[in-house]
Each structure stands twice: as structure tokens, then as C-alpha cells.
Amino acid sequence: MHKTEKVSAAEVVMTKLHAGGKFEHSAYKVSGGLHGVGASCVNALAEWLHLEIRRDGKLYEQDYVRGTPKAPLKASGKSDRTGTKVTFKPDPKIFETTEYSFDTLSQRLREMAFLNKGLTIGIHDERTDKQHEFVYEGGIVSFVEYLNQRKTPLHKPVYIEAKRDGVIVQLAMQWNDGYQENIFSFANNINTIEGGTHLSGFKSALTRTINFYAQKNELLKKLKEVPEGEDIREGLTAVLSVYLPEPQFEGQTKAKLGNSEMEGLVKQLVNERLVDYLERNGPVARKIVAKAIEAAHAREAARAARNLVRRKSALEGGALPGKLADCQERDPAQSELYIVEGDSAGGSAKQGRDRRFQAILPLRGKILNVEKARFDKILSSEEIRTLITALGVGVGEAVPDGTAETERDLSKLRYHRVICMTDADVDGSHIRTLLLTFFYRQMPQIIENGYLYIAQPPLFRVKKGKVEKYLKDEAALENYLLAFGVEGVRVKSKQKELTGQPLARLVTQLIRYDKILDLIQRRHDPRVIDVLVTASELTTEVLAKEKKIDPELDKIAAHLQQVFPEMGDFEVDVQKDLEHASHKVVYTTTWQGFRRQTQIDADLLISAEIKELRKLRESFREIGAPPFQVEADESKQTLPFLRPVRDFILQRGREGVVIQRYKGLGEMNPQQLWVTTMNPEVRTLLQVKIEDAVEADQIFTILMGDQVEPRRQFIEENALYVRNLDI
Question: What does CATH list as the number for 140-304?
Fold first, then answer.
């Protein structure tokens, strides 16, 4: 019990603002929190929240509804484990979207595991069965090794740790033979994605120290000038993590560290430790300097090419590429650029567009894969030069340390909607991936500001009689055919009759039911499914009360016997797993003398999928028991189950319908392209975002990098998840 609040300490944490331990300096040495409102805000914004605490040999539980406790915290059982479990559902009355992003959560949990060496964190998405377990004994050194695992490192990771004035600085870095710079910075375990004073201190110290070492050892004789910061950081993968008592972040999202004293402190500590490391490790130091010299030579070679593609302002009379069909609008916020695959699609797009605000840039063939190319080679590619000139904004890294104006100034960007429009086939997907690689590696600021989009041309054109319609994907086609299929159809049981919209809803629910079954079948024995759906009535509450179990088990066994008579006799039992303080439902089938046992965790019985299956099954019961009488076009037939009813309606929906699947944009005339893909009133665009920077970097390295084996492994592991395969 809390001394002053007169409720349990757990309830104080979950309901009171500013109850965080960071305000007592005796609790935490460092903390990332600003206000101490996290848990209580989550609770207040949750439709319901269930709290379980295991400690002192007991299990304590408490339930909340929209932040209000239903009852005080109480001991509900015994437990030999320790730990806290919080289960909650976001309130749909507050949030428009209540779907969680697996990638966003994975990114944060991976970072936490890297930054706290030895800590194990697991995440399992039961919607898709994606799961990760993060544990890294090497801390941020493991983080750097992970980031470079698909690349070719030049040396073992460099690790620096120093402490001064109550501040801890940890740095791990490693150069590889690639051309991309990859630096992650953290303050008190928070990812400062916009950097801050600690990052600028590190970059400044790195440039100064490497150049000092190179000049001292006379390694720069062949260069006209010393390497710049971007030369030294070419191919660098680094993780900088600082811990400080009183962090000052810019904004509640904590994207940038603002403590002014951190710049000088980090600069001093990194300089001291790095000088010592370079002196002790001469061969590694020379490799790093050689890499920087090579980058400086390439930068000098690229300077001329860069001058060719640097966009001049309208006052300077700079010419735009000839193949660009520009728009009349000069306000970037009102303008959009379609990057189109091929001349035929480009021709249709030029004729079909609204020339007031839509510009078209057709690309010839596949652009250069920038993942495998150095900056000077990138700028020597005609297609990429054309693209850069059309956009009007520079590429590559900003000029370091504020010594010159950056060329990545977004104020020069000529269009605030840059739309990739490629065919819906393998070549189109490849070209789109090459474009995404270019923007991610060379113009990430366009993605970060939400200016990059992917067009969604329709996959299908359907025609019935004189009526034609364009449909985005398989799901839209399914709904369209369903509307035709239920027209004039009656489905009757002894209890009920369905027609029109209610019948269409039933078929949609049947399709959804089978999709969830398919999801569970990927993870479990298919024969388990009916057990799961039926046994899901064995909630943890029932399992906790021993007397209720036997009647439920008898029901399950009888149901299984009815559903699967070919599998023999069923026995269903519940086993306690004392070690993990949980239950398992065990069912045994005996057939011709053979016994087979299957176990199901009680947690699975109350999973979201099983709950939805049960809910759908209840809705199916409303139509009544089979058989079903189906009447359509003066014909009648009797069907034994609901699935044949669904198949009949979907097949009927296809009758007389001509379905055309589009593969290329060039298959559409200008009017069709405008109506389906370019008209802002009706089109669909996908906005490109970076949710998990680490995962994104890994995927681009695997799919677009030099090493073939990781790509082969990726294809083998993910082949079964393909949704659209163009054969």
C-alpha cells in the first residue's frame, strides 16, 4: 500500500500522473523519461487493461476500464515466478487506427536489447506468425556486427567507453568496403534519430583525429587537400550511446539531444580514446585512412559530374531534361512528378495527365543499382542524372561540420509528391525496388518528409454487358463478384432465409473464417483447429476452478467425436505446467490401437484468432442448421454445408463477367490511366515511410548488395509468403 495515496503502489503507477521514479534521484542514475506519464496514459487510453504481478510467491491481478480500476489489486493465486504482465486493448473511441506495427515495435525492442547487453526480449505477432528474439551479449559491438553482417568489414569493431562528470560515452564502429554511412545515436537508451550535440561532437572528433593521424604518418601525400568528414565516414557503421543525468531533448518525441555541454565532452573523450586506439593498431588505422583517401579521390572525380547535375534556379536559366514533361505549376507543394517505366507508359501518362500540376518523367529501362556503386559512378549514369536534375535537389551526404552549404536543401525540391508508377509485373517490381534503393540511399530526406509515393494502378478491369469497372486488387475483385453472385439468390434453412446484403455479409464472413484457419494451419496441426475453437471456452478463469473443467472436457470430446469420426476415440484432459505456472489442454486420439497426443497452450486458447473464429461461428449459427435450400433463376438445389453455398455464389458471380488482368501501364489508353491511377479524386497512393531503419538497411543490403548467398537464403525463407506472383 502506498503511504499517502492509500491504494496499492501498482495502482498509483497505473493511474497517477508524474509517478515515475525518475523524479527521485535515488531511484535511477539516468532516465529517458521526461514527465512520468507513460503507464498511466496507456491505461487511460485503453478500452480495458489487465495487470498481473508475480512476486513473493503470489499472483496479484487487477482490471481497469478506460483507466478506472474495477476493483483493488488482489492476490488471486500462487506463483513461483516473478515479473509483471500487462495486457491492454487501445480504445477505438479515441484512436482511428488500433493496429500495431510489428516493424516499429521490433525496431525499438532490438535497440533496447543491443543497448542493454545480455537482456533477452521476445516479440511474437500472432496475426502473421512473425517473431523475433533479441539477445546480444556484446551490446553495441554486437549491434555494429549485426548491421555489417551482410557486408564485408575491413577490421574488427572498435569499441570505446569512457566516463567523465557523471556522463558515460559508449562508441562502437567498424568500416566496411561499401559506400554507405550508417550511424545510430542514442541518449539514455532513446534513439535520437535527428542526432544532436552528442552526434556532432562524435563526427567532429572523428574527422579531426583520423586526419591528424594520417598527416602525422605522412599518408596524405597524393591528395591535394585533407579528406573531408564524408570521405572518412564512407563505409562506416557506428553506434554512439551516451548516458547523462539530466537529458534535454527537443520535443516530447525525443528525436534530438540538446545538451550543449555534450558536444565538447563527447569530442574530447572520443578524441582521447581514438588517438590511443589508432596508435596501438597501426594496420587497422592505415586501412581506415586508405579507405578515406580512396573516397576523397572519388569525391574529386564526382565533383565535375555533380556540377553537371546540380540544378540551377530558374533565374540562372538552367535547362531541365528533355524527356521531362514538366507541369505549369511552380509551387512545389501543389506539384507532383510521376516517374514512369518505359516510353509507351510515358506516352500514355503524358497524354492522360493534368498538365497544370502533373509532370511526367519516363525512364528508359532499369536504372543503376546504387547499392553496389560509388558516388562518382552514380553521377555518371544518364538516367540518374536526369532524375536528379528533374527533382532539383542534390544527392549524397551533406557537406560536414557546417563548413559549406549542404546540397540536400529540400527548399530546392521542385515537387512535393514524387510518385513511382511501374508495371504490375516482375520487371516493374524490380524497377520500383531500384528507385526505392536510390531514394533510400541517396535522397533519404525525401522519404523522411513524406514526399515519396507509389502509384497503385488497378490489377483488374471487369466487364459485364456494357458496364465496366477497374478494381485495385484481389479483395476488390472478390467483393465485386460477390455483389453479382448474390443477386436474385435465396438461401433458406428451416429457421431463416437470407438474400441480398445479409447473404453477401455471410459469404464475406465465410471467406474471412477460412483465411484465419489458413493462418493457424501454418503454425499448427490442421486437426487442432476445431479443438482450439471449441476448447477456447476453457478460459483461464475456468482452468483456475478445477470443478468446472470436467464437464467442459466432456463437451469437447463429444464435439470432436462428431466432427472427426474417422480419427477414433477422443480423450481430452488438462495438464498443469507448474514450472511455467500455466495449463495445457491435451487431447489424445486412439484409432486401431494407435495413440496420438497433441498439446495446446492455454494462452493460445484465448488468442485473438480463436476469439474471432468463435465469434464468426456464432454468426453462422444464426442462419440455422444444414442442409440449405438455394434458389436462383427459377432453379433449386440443396447443399449440405455453408462452404458449398459460398462457392456457388462466387462461381455465379463470375458468370458473364470478362476479367482482364493488367500487367503493364502501356496496356491502358491515356483516358484509362487518368481515370484509374492519376486522377487525385479517385486514385490510391502508397506513401513510403521508414519505420525500422535497421531492418530497412538489412533488407536493402540483402536484396541489392553484392553478396548472393544472403539473397538466396532470403528467397528460400520467404517463398511461401508470396502474394502476387507473375508467371
Answer: 3.30.230.10
